Amino acid sequence: MAFEFERKQRIAIIGGGPGGYEAALAGAQLGADVTVVERIGIGGSAVITDVVPSKTLIATAEAARSIPDAVGLGVQFFTRTEEGRPTRPEVAVNLAAVNKRILGLARQQGEDMRTELVRAGVRVIDGVGRLDGEKAVVVSTASGHGGTDFDRVEADTIVLATGASPRELPSAMPDGERILTWTQLYTLQTLPEHLIVVGSGVTGAEFASAYMNLGAKVTLVSSREQVLPGEDSDAATILEQVFTRGGMDVLSKSRADKVERTGDGVVVTLTDGRTVEGSHCLMAVGSVPNTAGIGLEEAGVQLTETGHVRVNRVARTSVPNIYAAGDCSDVLPLASIAFMQGRTAVFHAMGDAVNPIELRNVTSNIFTQPEIATVGWTQKQIEDGIAQGQIYKLPLPTNARAKMLNIKEGFVKLFARTGSGTVIGGVIVAPRASELIFPLAIAVEHRLTVDEVARAYAVFPSLSGAVTDAARAMHIVGG
Q: Taking every annotated instance into account, which residue ranges of this chain make up the domain Pyridine nucleotide-disulphide oxidoreductase dimerisation (predicted)?
């Protein structure tokens, strides 16, 4: 008597970054036969060249900044000369050592992620994957004979998680030495004498902040009237004030026309004819999705005009069995969203319970000093009448813990639905705002009112107490 066994669902994932990694773990958890194809290493660019390295650099900059900041708390740093006289030591950054640690940490994180996939039973192929129709992925791998071998992976479900790469301009082509993308910064052996950052979005602002606090002279070229266009205006104003006070030159409403190398430096020519000379230039002018030449159009996968993969709220593309997660999709380019998309895609494909992604509930953070964290509706949307809400802003320096830490700038801003008092959004500008935003994210996700938030016990003294203080100030009578 013959027995027929139900075949495992086969899932092929192109890209092992946050989206692909999470999709693979979800598939393995549900009993699927999962294969991940990754060209540069598990973790993808997010771990190897982008998020993990940049945030590690920023953490180092915070440590460097904390030393002079401690002086404001009454801490004194000095050494003694041969004559026994006290003298203030200089704070120096060994960038070669910093970058070596950054790359080592990123490599270790990637190895840990690979180990986790293998432990879960996921097959990992090192190579470049492309679609071969709707049901297969062809992988090109380097052979031991100096050529290329090809592997074909049949799949019932395919997840695209190919990420994105720094956008390059023909008039400012990176050379990896003086004109750099953010993936090339970690080869630097010494701190730039004068770093010119072109682009004042999130990436440009983060690196400008980090290198300023590491001790480099920084010029930020911003094509807009204010840094961080599109972010909360009050937050952007504080950050620009911090930049200026720290010695950064912020060139507002200035667009770079071209960047040229001058031997031992660079010159940036602006569209109005002005020039800025420096030792290095970081191009932070956005990114492009890694979707070209991998068989998407041939398989019927729809793309946007920018080359991003169109997906719905469960990360499904125009082809029913193909999904996309992360920066290659037309959703916000955040690692947290990539993780959620990857898991959501596989749960949906395998018929498990799934909650469609609600972008309104997504938290985001800008890792400058101070950090800027946001969730939910924005103040501009409320002021424009798109959302109905009330706004309350609590200056952070009034908080007792902030006084102890000598925090001079920052705020907690809450947005609550008019009438009901339901929390619909918020902005926090503070050290570690990325940690402080979480209670507001819970409030937005679960539609808590300001009174419900205020009734939670915050430690005193604590920065998180500013959240409950702001919520209490928005008390709804009878609520």
A: 364-470
